[in-house]
């Protein structure tokens, strides 16, 4: 609840339980196994905190830790709204935020866990220190230099790490198995079992999450129907459209992909 600066708690069937008052409203939050909260403040400085990440005990109202101090210069112009900043796994809670390509593990302290290996496309310090009118001015100039500055989403499990980032105004997915050193990145995804052509990733491809065995994501209904008409390998894909009454204005299609 942004207006009242509180977290509203509901049970599994949607019944309201109670509200947790907050000293300020974060951009994102996660609750750990101890019942304490981790807040992501982006570059928004408040009387409560001047750090991007705050570890907070809602019950006692005490700050347990603050991490990544906000640069006042960046706070003047750099506001990127990531789709996700926290990922909860069986191993713990992880954090990532634009423009860093590093994933951190949260616990008694904040420690680097994984890096996506985008060193050749990082924004150099000298570029950050320049003056910009606003975020759009920064984006225009950063795109002209082929920099990666937007880490839109990430997810991971015990075996793999996946992230979404923007490069040259296009969305890319990166994927790597922890047992391997190689990182795969792509702007197209090909389901070669059902289709003869690859899907181009778009803004609707940003929301995704990995479980232990499956990857879940979205595909625009219009794009799915076009692919069924033009590039389907099997006629049963057309039957799916009829079975579910799909048209171009339908909600995005939920994809469930087996991780091998």
| Main β-sheet description | 4 strands, antiparallel
Query: What is the helix/strand order?
Result: EEEEEEHEEEEHHEEEEEEEEHHE
Question: Using DSSP, what is the number of strands?
Answer: 19
Low-confidence stretches: none
Structural class: mainly beta
Strand percentage: 35-45%
Tally of helical runs: 5
- Average pLDDT, rounded to a whole number, is 90
Could you estimate the helical fraction of the residues in percent?
10-25%
- Global shape: globular
**N-to-C terminal Cα separation, in Å?**
40 Å
The rounded Rg comes to 20 Å
Output the strand order for the largest sheet. Answer: 3-4-5-6
Give the tags.
four-stranded antiparallel sheet, 38% strand, mainly beta, 260 residues
In words, what does this structure look like?
This protein is mainly beta and 260 residues long. The protein has 5 helices and 19 strands. The longest helix has 11 residues, at 221-231.
What's a quick, concise take on this entry?
The chain is mainly β. Helix content is 15%, strand content 38%.
List the helices and strands and how they pair.
Layout: E1 6-10, E2 16-21, E3 28-31, E4 37-40, E5 51-57, E6 62-69, H1 72-75, E7 86-89, E8 92-95, E9 102-106, E10 110-115, H2 125-128, H3 135-144, E11 150-156, E12 160-167, E13 170-177, E14 184-186, E15 188-189, E16 199-200, E17 208-210, E18 214-219, H4 221-231, H5 236-244, E19 253-258
Antiparallel strand pairs: 1-2, 3-4, 4-5, 5-6, 7-8, 8-9, 9-10, 11-12, 12-13, 13-14, 15-16, 17-18, 18-19
